[in-house]
């Protein structure tokens, strides 16, 4: 084990009252939480959407064709998130940053009792009393008959504790999802699993095909979020996967010679490490599928061996690093480059070395694993004690984790434990270790943001773009004003045309063609288009309005001309008639007929200076209408006569015209309505 700690259990009766108070308080809190959960949400599992990604062939990267089905429960389901936040996340967030300093968040996860442990009938020594507390019971040795029934135990409190039934999504959402969000904003984040061999570290980090772990869920979430934001700027994702085995660093994506660690501006880097990059959104989409396959491939390359505690024990520490570079232009056209790094680490399990162990490869591996974990413990102790010198250089693992432990990074540790009494001492060590890690203070991580200096040409172009944009804005405003003017004019003319005027005047104001209603419709639509739609439609609308106005003016002019002609014709005809009537009746009779007919139209005839009758509507009536009226006038005169006569043929008989003066008016009125 990395840290040898003596049992520090207190007397269980010590401070019993305080403990009772604390527990009562916690019980009340839990009751409230579960009540609110019951009220507002259903089971989070119900809300988790099942998402299946099928990877068929990944060209160039994987030698053999991989056909894998990943069943990915959707971790970003809002309801599920909310549920977990009530239980874990919200609480964690509140306590994470204190006084400009943040601390490592520590979580504990208990794995289910294994088949082997069940068969042996081993007792359980771990109990999760609420969402934060772990109660570790120590049973007396079976041979110690005096203390056989005495149970000693101790409570430990962590940021969250997961029972054996906690799902992978719960674990991911509570521990890592916030970190993923922070990485996209240019902050660094690290998650590492620590625990004894067979405690469930690889299950938590990688998971299985049916239940993918934190690594897979984090990457899926990350790529999903990038896809959502791809319109804001450009993202580049770099991905690498390495392992530290027997104090050598190896590339898991393209295995080969061991890699050398170097320190540069970015921190410790493995020289020659393969990095996969995805630039565009499509590539990122493809990459999310690819990454799953890469992880599978990398894990196949990872060193695993069966041990006493675990059939597939990982004999190395695996580190998956995802670097997200995000470029965006700020309001003054500067390029802002944000870089966030997410490190997901699956540590190898610590294992007790038996006295009988030979110097086999397994024991050498175990010794190296323990050495690196011991180095990790030393770093943690030095950090907690606030020492100036932190011994990162003691192992490859601590060199690689330097950023995560002592730098500006959001760090999460998940301590995996077995519930079985058979692993009591390992569990105890892990819990003590985790309890100590809680005290590590980290600097609050700022966003890794750089203002990229632009080359001179690009700078000029940026300025030019700004100027053009300004000019364009001004032109748009001017155009809008002009259009507004035109539209006002159009609206005024339309209003003038549609204002209540005598019917005859209305009919006169429109062109004397059958296309009249179509024109009207067009004019109205152009008005709307000009008001609400594109500048082109505005312009069209204004042009149409002008054309309509011109047409109306022309129509009016021709109307006036026609009216003049009609009027002179009427005068000559009237003179003719008077001349003819002067032989038989008199001028009086003609005037009487004229009066009656025009009055039916609703207007009183006016008397001209020379005493002639004149219709008041002559100025506005359309030629068609005036001709019809004229005809009906003459028709009246002819139908009243027993023998039909026409004006054109000048066959009118004098008695037929003079008849209305004596005949009753209704008959002529009826005929006028025809
Ligand atoms: N939460 C869990 N739910 C179901 N099965 C689990 C869980 N945690 C662990 N297991 C199972 O327990 C076994 C050991 O787990 P795992 O391999 O993850 O341990 P480990 O800590 O990574 O061990 P090592 O350090 O030796 O690699 C595996 O078969 C795994 O499927």
TrEMBL record:
<dbReference type="GO" id="GO:0005524">
    <property type="term" value="F:ATP binding"/>
</dbReference>
<feature type="domain" description="Kinesin motor">
    <location>
        <begin position="103"/>
        <end position="440"/>
    </location>
</feature>
<comment type="similarity">
    <text>Belongs to the TRAFAC class myosin-kinesin ATPase superfamily. Kinesin family. KIN-8 subfamily.</text>
</comment>
<feature type="region of interest" description="Disordered">
    <location>
        <begin position="639"/>
        <end position="674"/>
    </location>
</feature>
<protein>
    <recommendedName>
        <fullName>Kinesin-like protein</fullName>
    </recommendedName>
</protein>
<dbReference type="InterPro" id="IPR001752">
    <property type="entry name" value="Kinesin_motor_dom"/>
</dbReference>
<dbReference type="InterPro" id="IPR036961">
    <property type="entry name" value="Kinesin_motor_dom_sf"/>
</dbReference>
<feature type="coiled-coil region">
    <location>
        <begin position="454"/>
        <end position="492"/>
    </location>
</feature>
<dbReference type="InterPro" id="IPR027417">
    <property type="entry name" value="P-loop_NTPase"/>
</dbReference>
<feature type="binding site">
    <location>
        <begin position="195"/>
        <end position="202"/>
    </location>
    <ligand>
        <name>ATP</name>
    </ligand>
</feature>
<keyword id="KW-0175">Coiled coil</keyword>
<dbReference type="InterPro" id="IPR027640">
    <property type="entry name" value="Kinesin-like_fam"/>
</dbReference>
<keyword id="KW-0505">Motor protein</keyword>
<dbReference type="GO" id="GO:0008017">
    <property type="term" value="F:microtubule binding"/>
</dbReference>
<keyword id="KW-0493">Microtubule</keyword>
<feature type="compositionally biased region" description="Polar residues">
    <location>
        <begin position="495"/>
        <end position="517"/>
    </location>
</feature>
<dbReference type="GO" id="GO:0005874">
    <property type="term" value="C:microtubule"/>
</dbReference>
<keyword id="KW-0547">Nucleotide-binding</keyword>
<dbReference type="Pfam" id="PF00225">
    <property type="entry name" value="Kinesin"/>
</dbReference>
<feature type="coiled-coil region">
    <location>
        <begin position="539"/>
        <end position="566"/>
    </location>
</feature>
<dbReference type="InterPro" id="IPR019821">
    <property type="entry name" value="Kinesin_motor_CS"/>
</dbReference>
<dbReference type="GO" id="GO:0007018">
    <property type="term" value="P:microtubule-based movement"/>
</dbReference>
<dbReference type="GO" id="GO:0003777">
    <property type="term" value="F:microtubule motor activity"/>
</dbReference>
<keyword id="KW-0067">ATP-binding</keyword>
<feature type="region of interest" description="Disordered">
    <location>
        <begin position="493"/>
        <end position="523"/>
    </location>
</feature>
């Amino acid at each position: 084990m990395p840290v040898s700690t003596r049992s520090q259990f207190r007397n269980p009766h010590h401070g019993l009252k305080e403990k009772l108070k604390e527990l009562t308080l916690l019980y009340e809190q839990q009751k409230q939480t579960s009540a609110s959960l019951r009220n507002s949400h259903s089971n989070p599992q119900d809300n988790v959407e099942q998402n299946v990604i099928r990877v068929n062939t990944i060209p160039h990267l994987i030698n053999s064709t991989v056909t894998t089905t990943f069943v990915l429960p959707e971790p970003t389901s809002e309801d599920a998130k909310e549920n977990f936040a009530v239980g874990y996340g919200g609480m964690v967030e509140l306590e994470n940053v204190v006084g400009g300093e943040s601390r490592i968040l520590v979580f504990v996860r208990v794995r289910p009792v294994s088949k082997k442990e069940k068969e042996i009938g081993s007792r359980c020594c771990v109990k999760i009393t609420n969402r934060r507390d772990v109660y570790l019971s120590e049973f007396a040795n079976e041979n110690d008959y005096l203390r056989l029934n005495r149970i000693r135990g101790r409570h430990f409190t962590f940021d969250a504790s997961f029972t054996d039934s906690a799902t992978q999504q719960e674990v991911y959402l509570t521990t890592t999802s916030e970190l993923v969000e922070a990485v996209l904003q240019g902050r660094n984040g690290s998650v590492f699993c620590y625990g004894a061999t067979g405690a469930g570290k690889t299950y938590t980090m990688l998971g299985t095909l049916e239940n993918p772990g934190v690594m897979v869920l984090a990457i899926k979430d990350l790529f999903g979020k990038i896809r959502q934001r791809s319109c804001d700027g450009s993202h580049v994702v770099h991905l690498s996967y390495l392992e530290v085995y027997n104090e050598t660093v190896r590339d898991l994506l393209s295995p080969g010679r061991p890699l050398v660690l170097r320190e540069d501006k970015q921190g410790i880097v493995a020289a020659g490490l393969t990095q996969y990059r995805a630039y565009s959104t499509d590539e990122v989409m493809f990459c999310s599928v690819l990454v799953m396959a890469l992880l599978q491939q990398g894990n196949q390359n990872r060193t695993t061996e069966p041990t006493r505690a675990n059939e597939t024990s990982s004999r190395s520490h695996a580190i998956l690093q995802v670097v997200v570079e995000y470029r965006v232009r700020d309001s003054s056209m500067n390029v802002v480059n944000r870089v966030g790094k997410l490190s997901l680490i699956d540590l190898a399990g610590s294992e007790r070395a038996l006295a009988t162990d030979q110097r086999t490869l397994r024991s050498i591996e175990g010794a190296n694993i323990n050495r690196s974990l011991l180095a990790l413990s030393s770093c943690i102790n030095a950090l907690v004690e606030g020492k100036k010198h932190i011994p990162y250089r003691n192992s490859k693992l601590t060199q690689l984790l330097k950023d995560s432990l002592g730098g500006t990074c959001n760090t999460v540790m998940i301590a995996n434990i077995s519930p079985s009494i058979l692993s009591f001492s390992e569990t105890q060590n892990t819990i003590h270790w985790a309890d100590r890690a809680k005290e590590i203070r980290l600097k609050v991580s700022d966003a890794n943001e750089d203002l990229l200096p632009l080359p001179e040409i690009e700078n000029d172009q940026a300025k030019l773009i700004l100027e053009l944009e300004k000019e364009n804005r001004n032109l748009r405003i001017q155009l809008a004003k002009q259009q507004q003017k035109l539209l006002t004019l159009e609206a005024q003319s339309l209003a003038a045309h549609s204002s209540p005027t005598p019917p005859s005047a209305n009919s006169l104001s429109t062109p004397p063609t059958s296309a009249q209603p179509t024109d009207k419709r067009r004019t109205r639509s152009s008005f709307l288009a000009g008001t609400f739609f594109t500048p082109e439609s505005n312009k069209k609308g204004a042009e149409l309005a002008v054309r309509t106005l011109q047409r109306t003016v022309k129509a009016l002019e021709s109307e006036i001309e026609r009216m003049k002609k009609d009027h002179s014709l009427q005068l000559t005809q009237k003179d003719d008639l008077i001349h003819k009537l002067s032989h038989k009746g008199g001028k009086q009779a003609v005037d009487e007929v004229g009066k009656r007919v025009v009055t039916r139209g609703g207007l009183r005839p006016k008397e001209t200076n020379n005493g002639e009758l004149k219709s008041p509507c002559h100025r506005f009536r359309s030629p068609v209408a005036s001709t019809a009226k004229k005809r009906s006038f003459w028709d009246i005169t002819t139908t009243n006569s027993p023998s039909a006569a026409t004006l054109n043929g000048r066959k009118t008989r004098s008695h037929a015209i003079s008849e209305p003066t004596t005949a009753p008016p209704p008959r002529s009125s009826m005929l006028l309505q025809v």
